[in-house]
Write a structure and sequence with these properties.
Elements (H helix, E strand, L loop, with lengths): L1 E4 L11 E2 L3 H12 L12 E2 L27 E7 L2 E6 L9 E4 L5 E6 L9 E5 L4 E4 L1 H6 L9 E3 L13 E6 L6 E6 L3 E6 L20 E4 L9 E4 L5 E6 L5 E6 L3 E6 L4 E7 L5 E6 L5 E6 L3 E6 L4 E7 L5 E6 L15 H6 L1 E9 L3 E8 L23 H5 L9 E2 L9 E2 L3 E4 L5 E6 L3 E6 L4 E5 L4 H8 L3
Parallel strand pairs: 19-27, 23-28
Antiparallel strand pairs: 1-4, 2-25, 3-32, 4-5, 5-6, 7-8, 8-9, 9-10, 11-12, 12-13, 13-15, 14-15, 16-17, 17-18, 18-19, 20-21, 21-22, 22-23, 24-25, 25-26, 26-29, 30-31, 31-32
């Protein structure tokens, strides 16, 4: 699921909240997701882009409505089912998508929208064939038909490398690099494309001899597209995510490892393993200091860029975690007071995030950094000692790991445990994606049902109106 803004995107917070508002965040969570323990249900707003409607969120995508008078603005929800890409108007009262795009030869599996692109192609779609289509969302909305309008088709000639399991698993625009996007695949490779270059040029990359090792190769011709191939792991890359400034790229894979790369230097910074099985998702905090991941161990992990390791894990899901996201729009009551004490702000930072899983549950979390009891040390002070030959627990007690080292999972008792503030069942089908907007929280299941919840109104402002001095 992708939320596309064809107008000015709502401003995100430049920094998370502070611990001086811990009671505020808990009261907000209680009003949003019940009394803080998940005992009360969420109020339903709509499904598949509808609003102002009561129900359980169980309606399925119906027949798309006509696009109507498209003015080039608005907020849209993009999601895929089978061989179709659906587009819903986020602010519409119509409980159906306004358009779908049909892909005849292969199904759309992933997509990304470039909010910085004011014109031209701003939407990329990864297909089950391993190919990628780029197109203009504005053009698609103007046309009532169901075929892609003026798409660019980036054909991935992986058959030359003897690769058959080549479906796309993730696509992402590179922040701060106009026209660059990356595509991850089920073969453990990641390809870097430039949308300004010819899409029909031939390309080849060196054969990967050891598929368990990282290997980065560049195209021999400056005209080739893709411009580079990163072989990252043996097995599928399940998800990718760029830090907000585009400096770092995070990947999670079937092998259970989170890997973080310096994108410009093309270097592995650090990596860590799940407690069990594959990792399916990852997401950055708005300040780029922390990462979330989730997967087959039913847990949510919090990773620190400064410490280059897991600093907390959260228990609450009853099945695999399929999506995680920080809430970059949330701001606490009286947030202006955060500037009064800079030192306290730095020490008492609070982050809010959410997760959804195959247990059809939405979980809301917060984490205060001063409660983790983990030393926050800069990477420059880390010892370059290799971790080979040491037990996982002994190695975990060191301040932070050597650069470019994939760490084993730490003992659970050595890492702070988090519990969710609230738990909300959402229908019966497994949930597959999660998004925060400035006004709401969205979750989607595999069948294409989108459930939307509004953000609560600030209780303090309400109290002031009800009880004036």
């Amino acid at each position: 699921m992708t939320v596309a803004y064809l107008e000015e995107k709502p401003a995100t917070r430049l920094a998370p909240s502070t611990a001086s508002f811990a009671s505020g965040i808990r009261s907000v969570a209680a009003r949003l997701l019940g009394a803080g323990n998940g005992s009360r249900p969420l109020s339903f707003v709509g499904s598949n882009g509808a609003s102002g409607q009561s129900g359980s969120g169980s309606s399925r995508p119906g027949r798309p409505q006509a696009v109507g008078n498209y003015d080039g603005k608005g907020t849209y929800i993009i999601y895929s089912i089978a061989h179709k890409l659906f587009i819903s108007d986020f602010n519409s009262n119509v409980n159906r998508p306004i358009k779908y795009i049909r892909f005849s030869n292969s199904g759309p599996l992933c997509h990304a929208f470039d909010s910085e692109a004011k014109d031209g192609h701003d939407l990329i779609v990864g297909l089950s064939s391993g190919d990628v289509c780029s197109m203009s969302l504005r053009q698609q909305l103007k046309d009532p038909g169901h075929e892609p309008i003026e798409p660019q088709h980036f054909i991935n000639n992986k058959y030359k490398e003897g690769i058959t399991n080549s479906r796309c698993t993730g696509v992402a625009w590179v922040p701060g690099h106009k026209g660059l996007f990356v595509v991850s695949d089920a073969d453990g490779n990641l390809y870097v494309y430039d949308k300004s270059k010819d899409v029909n040029t031939d390309w080849t990359f060196p054969t990967v001899e050891d598929r368990s090792e990282i290997m980065i190769s560049h195209a021999k011709s400056s005209k080739s597209n893709p411009v580079a191939r990163w072989h990252i792991c043996q097995g599928a890359i399940n998800a990718i995510s760029f830090s907000p400034d585009g400096a770092y790229l995070a990947t999670v894979g079937r092998d259970g490892y989170l890997r973080v790369f310096d994108f410009a230097k093309e270097q592995l910074i650090f990596g860590g393993k799940s407690y069990f099985g594959s990792l399916f998702c990852c997401s950055w905090s708005i300040d780029g200091k922390y990462l979330l991941s989730g997967g087959e161990d039913d847990l949510v992990q919090v990773w620190s860029m400064d410490d280059r390791k897991m600093v907390a894990w959260g228990e609450g899901h009853k099945s695999w975690v399929s999506a995680v996201a920080f809430d970059s729009y949330w701001s606490p009551p009286n947030s202006a007071e955060t500037e009064e004490n800079t030192n306290e702000t730095m020490e008492n930072t609070i982050y809010r995030f959410a997760s959804v899983g195959q247990d059809a549950r939405l979980l809301l979390w917060d984490v205060a950094m001063d409660e983790l009891r983990a030393p926050l040390t800069s990477s420059s002070s880390c010892s370059p000692t290799s971790s080979s030959g040491r037990s996982p627990s002994t190695d975990w007690d060191s301040t932070c790991p050597p650069a470019r080292v994939l760490r084993p999972s730490p003992r659970m008792q050595e890492v702070p445990k988090l519990l969710p503030l609230a738990t909300q069942p959402v229908g019966a089908d497994p949930l597959s994606a999660l998004e925060f907007t400035s006004e709401s929280i969205l979750a989607i299941c595999r069948e294409g049902r989108i459930t939307i919840w509004p953000r609560p109104i600030d209780s303090e402002s309400n109290n002031d109106q009800q009880h004036p001095d």
